[in-house]
Amino acid sequence: MKKFTAYEIALSALSCAFCVLFLTLGAYVEILRFTGYLFASASLLLPLAKKSYKGYVLAYIGSSVLGFIFVGGRFFELLPFVMFFGLHPLVNELQLRTKLNTWVACFLKALWFDGTMYVIWRFLFGMESTFPIVDRYILPIILILGTGFFVFYDYTLYKARGAVNEIACRFMK
Fold this sequence. Notes:
Blueprint: H1 6-28, H2 33-43, H3 45-49, H4 53-70, H5 75-85, H6 88-98, H7 102-124, H8 132-136, H9 138-171
């Protein structure tokens, strides 16, 4: 079994630190909540840039635990990250590694995202919003708008992955 190098540990720690920073910022500044999830997800790309899957797992677990502590034990603040945003970069990497069909993978990941959004709506918002029409048509709303957002997010994360890989190759030879 390959040992961790100091370089991998440092890269994972840096990734974890950025991730916790963005999760905490998103938890305390309401308008930045989903932005925090997105940037936390992107910060987990650092270990993946050097194919350090163990480093990624450590950064994800560390981010989840430290995020839980930094947001004052409010687990539901981290639920979207734990269920989807924190795992999505790894799933993308595995999709590329296994050469899974892009359309099949996108469909499955969109279902996963939509399911996560439904769980969040159900448990975080108590199945109630300020607009009764949203409550009545939440499933079509999630399936249409959620899937549309996911496709944009997935594409953006792939572009971010390319940028992070390029920067990592330049600075971390």
